[in-house]
Please model this.
Amino acid sequence: EKGGHDYFMLKEIVEQPRAVADTLLGRVGIDGTLTLDEMRLSPSDLRDIEKIVIIACGTSYHAGLIAKYAIEHWCRIPCEVEVASEFRYRDPILNRQTLVIGISQSGESMDTLMATRYAREQRARVLAICNVNGSTIPRESDGVLYTHAGPEVGVAATKTFLTQLAACYLIGLYLAQVRNLKFGDEINAIIAQLARMPEQVEKVLDTVEPVRRLARSLSNSTTVLFLGRHVGYPVAMEGALKLKELAYMHAEAFAAGELKHGPIALIENGLPVVVVVPSREGRGVLHDKIVSNIQEIRARGARTIVIAEEGDEAVLPFSDELIEVPAVPTLLQPIVATVPLQVFACELALAKGNDVDQPRNLAKSVTVE
Ligand code: F6R
Model:
C-alpha cells in the first residue's frame, strides 16, 4: 500500500508529478482554453467579481498566499488571504461581488467550514478547492474545484499542496480568460508552462538525493530559518511548517526584505538558513535584492542553503549548499521550489527517528474550532 516506500509521506512526495497532472487533466485544452465545469459560477458571475478573499488553514493557507500573487497579477482583482480561524471574528466586508475561495484538502477543517459558511450568510459567492470528494466544505459551497490528488495518508500535506497550487493557478488563469484581459499572450504562455509542471516536478525528484544528505547532516541543529521574497516567501513558510510538524524543530520563515528590520539579529555562526530565490525571469530587481540578502547573512556566519533555478550563477559564491530547480516562470516556481523543502523536512525527521506519517499531537483533519 505504501508502494515500496517505508512511509506514506515518501510515497506521496514521489506521486506529485502524477497528482499535479491529475489536477490539470481535462481542464487544459490543447488550444489553451480552460474548462472548469464544477465551478458552477457562470462567466457573467465571474465578470462581476470585485474582490477575492481566500480563507484556509496551515499548508492550505500557504497555497492561498501564493495564489494572491498570481491572481492579482493575471486578473487585476484585489485579493486578500486570511487564516480561517481569524476571518469571521473581525467583521469582514463581503457582498455579492466578493468571491470567497475556501482551500481545504480534507474539506472538513472546522475553522475553514465556519468561515465559508459565514461568507455565504453574507451573500458572498463561495468556491471550494478541495481534495476529498463530497466533503462538507464543497457541499456547502457554490462551486468546487477538486484537486484529484488521490488520498493523502501522511498527516503532513505534500501532494495536496502542489495540487492546490495547480488549482489556484487554473482559477486565476480562467478568471483572466473570462474577463478577457488584454495580455492574452502572457496568459496563454503561462497555461502552456503550467501544463508542463508535472515533468518539471519529476526533474526535481530526480535530483533530491543531495538534499537528503544535507538534511541528515543537520539533525542536531536546534533552529533553521527560511527566507524568501515574492512567491518564495510563502514557500519559505511552508518549508518552516513542514520542519516544525515533522522534525519538531524551531523553524521560522521571514520575508527576506524584513531581515534588516529585526530578524537579522538572530543570525549567528553556523545557523542554517534556507533561502528561496525567485526565478530570474521578469524579476531582475527582486533577484538581485535576495542575492544581497544572502551575502548579508553569510557575512554574519549563517550556513546558507540556497534554492535557486538551474544556472543561476549569481548565487553560487554565497551558497554553502545549492539546491537547483528547473527554470520556470516566477509565479509557478512554488510548485518546483517546495519539493526539496518537503524532502528536507521528511529526511531530517527520519534522521531524528520520528514517525513522519503520524507526527505527535497532530491529526489529518482538524474538525474542532
Ligand atoms: C500541514 C497540514 C495542516 C493542514 C491544515 C488544513 O502539513 O497538513 O497544516 O494543511 O490543517 O487542513 P485542510 O487543508 O484539510 O483544511
Residues 248 and 349 are 8 Å apart (CA to CA). The chain has a mean pLDDT of 94. Residues 159-178 form the longest helix (20 residues).
